[in-house]
Amino acid sequence: MEALHEEMPFDLDFHPSSQLVATSLITGELNLFRYGPESQPERLFTVKAHEESCRAVRFVDSGKVILSGSADCSVLASDVETGKAVARLEDAHENGINRLVCLTETLIATGDDEGCIKVWDTRERSCCNSFHVHEDYISDMTYVPDSNQILATSGDGTLSVNSLRRNKVKSQSEFSEDELLSLVIMKNGKKVVCGTPSGALLLYSWGYFKDCSDRFLGHAQSVDTMLKLDEETLISGASDGVIRLVGILPNRIIQPLAEHSEYPIEALAFSHDRKYLGSISHDKMLKLWDLQELLSGPQSVHDGGSVEAGSDDSDEDEMDVDVEPSSSKGSRGKKAGKGQSSSRPGADFFADL
C-alpha cells in the first residue's frame, strides 16, 4: 500500500488505536490517511500547519490530537477529526524544531537545531525541563521510563543521557568521527545502537557512554532511521533506499526487507498493532508494508566488518554509571530550513487542549 505526496515528507506517526497514519511535509503541510488491508491509503485531510518545514509529528491525548514541530520554531496541536488547529505555541524554541517524541501520557520532548531539548508537561501547560548539552541539531531521542531519562543523539557526534528526575545531563559521550543520526536501545537496556552518515552502527554499553564498545560496518550508506523489532534485532532505513533487518550481537545484516528504489529513507514507524511497517522517503511516497510478510521472506545473513572500539561487545553489562558530560567542541552540518530565533515565552501552549 502506498500514497504519493506532492512534496517530500519528513516524519510519520501511527494512531495509537485506529487505522490512521499522519505525515508531515517539507512545505509545512500535515496529512492524515486512513489505511486498511484491502485498499490504498485514503487521504482524510491536508492542512497547512506551519509556514516552514514540518519536521516532526506525533499523536497525543489518546489519539485525539496531532502534535507537529517545525523549522519555524512552533509546535501545533491539531484536531484529529478535522485537522483544525487546537492550540499553537509560536516560539517553543529559539531555533527550528527537529524532533518531537512522546514520553508519557502527559509529557512530550522537543529537540532543536542548536542542540536544546525541552520537556513539556501538558497538565501544567508549561516547559518543565530543558537540557543544553549539545552544540548541533538533535537528530533523535528516546525515553527510558525505568530510569526517567531521555537519550538523545546530535549532529555534533555525541550521545547524551538526560535525567528528568534530577533535571541534569547525566552523561555525554566523546565526539565520534560521524554525526549521530538515530538511536535504539537493545539487549534489555544494556546496549544503545546509533546510526551514522558513514553507515556504521555504533554500540554503546549502558553506563559506559564515553566511547562506543563496538562498531558494525554492515551498511554502505547513511543509517538515518531505526526501529527496534525485539531485543536482538532492529529495522534500519538507509540513504540507499533499502530497509533492512539487522541483528545485534552478533552483528549482522539478516536480510533486506523492502526499498524505495534508490531514494533515502527518511523515517520508519510501526502501526499500533504492529501489523504494518510504515516508511517515507525522498521519493515523496508513504509506503505501508505487511510486517509479517516482510519478516517471513528468505533470509540471507551478511556479516559486516566489526571493529573493537572500547570495552567489549558482549551484552553482560550491568551498572548504571554516572559520567559527567564533557564540554562540547566544534559542530557539524545543520538541518536544512532552520527557523529564526525568538525569545517569546511559551508557558500556556496546552491551555486549549
Helix and strand arrangement:
Blueprint lengths: L1 E3 L4 E6 L5 E6 L3 E8 L2 E10 L5 E7 L4 E6 L4 E5 L5 E5 L7 E6 L4 E6 L4 E5 L4 E6 L6 E7 L4 E6 L4 E5 L4 E5 L9 E5 L4 E5 L5 E5 L8 E3 L6 E6 L4 E6 L3 E6 L4 E8 L5 E6 L5 E6 L3 E6 H5 L10 E3 L45
Antiparallel strand pairs: 1-28, 2-3, 3-4, 4-5, 6-7, 7-8, 8-9, 10-11, 11-12, 12-13, 14-15, 15-16, 16-17, 18-19, 19-20, 20-21, 21-29, 22-23, 23-24, 24-25, 26-27, 27-28
Describe the overall structure.
By secondary structure, this protein is mostly beta strands. The chain has one helix at 291-295; strands at residues 2-4, 9-14, 20-25, 29-36, 39-48, 54-60, 65-70, 75-79, 85-89, 97-102, 107-112, 117-121, 126-131, 138-144, 149-154, 159-163, 168-172, 182-186, 191-195, 201-205, 214-216, 223-228, 233-238, 242-247, 252-259, 265-270, 276-281, 285-290, 306-308. The two termini are 33 Å apart. Residues 306-334 and 336-347 have low confidence and may be disordered.
Tell the overall outline: globular
Adjacency order of strands in the biggest sheet = 18-19-20-21-29
Gyration radius, rounded:
19 Å
Uncertain runs with pLDDT below 50, 5 residues or more? 306-334, 336-347
Q: Biggest sheet, open or closed, and with what strands and sense?
A: 5 strands, antiparallel
How confident is the prediction overall: mean pLDDT?
85
Span between termini: 33 Å
